[in-house]
Amino acid sequence: MRQDDTISTKLFRYFFHIRGVLDKAARQQMNAAISKAFLFMWLYILVFTGGVLLFVKNTPNSESWMLFVYLSLLIGVGGSGLYIRRRAADLGLDIRKVIANQYDDAVEDAVMGSVWVGFLGGVVLFAVWMNVSPADRPFPGIFAFLFLVVACVWEAREAINHIVVVESDVKRRK
Amino acid sequence: MKAKESFGSRLLMHWFGVKRPFDEYKHQQIGRIGTNAYMILAVYLLVSSIVAIFVGQKHPEEALIGLVMINIVMVGFVVNIYILIATTRAHIVTREIQAASRQEIIKKAVLKGIGFGIYFMVIMLIADILMDWYFDGTSPLNSVENMGVIWPNVRSGLFFGATMAIYEILTTKVYKE
User: Out of the domains of life, which is the source (chain B) (predicted)?
Assistant: First the structure.
């Protein structure tokens, strides 16, 4: 992450896995895609609420409506996030270009940022998983912990893979 | 030559209530406001879902009612009010007209209000009839003949139509030459 980024830009980067230069034009293109994702999410919450209301008529005391909540996390948050990340990848914003002597710093940045993102995501999933009643949970708690570790490593690996070393301007001119 | 706008882009502009012509500034502002609204909704959806999962294990009924109510408040009020304030501040929902065409604009706004009122009334009436049929087993024919079902929807339609007409008039500004 760049040191001179504002907090909102840093959040924006973490949220949508943007590692490249986020100039005005790129930001506008991303904003257009996110606005579409917003419209989808707004409609999704309306449909979700209607669906839950219709479903609950038959099973008012059951916990089975929670399936809708899991779907909500998967489709609402996961689906729209995936769409935005794909858009960022199309625009080449998920790639960080650095010169050779900046590579180590970029890797350090990538590991630190990704471990945080992976850790937070992993903790959320860990908590949700551990809260599901043991009868419905097919794997033990160690599985959830393992998932947390994998999430951190996966995020860091992805971030490092998206660092590209380019020639510096001085070298290119020679 | 003017580039052709995509359907998604036009839908977005209409949804936010932006008046034509859709220039670059309006696109930029809608992008900014849409991004902020997305952040609000995404964080809300994540947090509310997790809370619902936790609370729902012990108190499923309370968690369900709470989630549905908060969803309606969030989608219907919080996000929409934010968008209304942000678009008004960005001056993208106002239309500038010449003093001569003011009467014509008011007439159009009233007609638009009547249209919106009828549309809203019909939609709400259909929703009411279907809900009565689904939840209470009331026959749709009985509901259609029941004035107790029709009147509240007519009143809602009148209120909605009047609000839309007033909003349309208020967002039209006469520019000084």
Answer: Bacteria
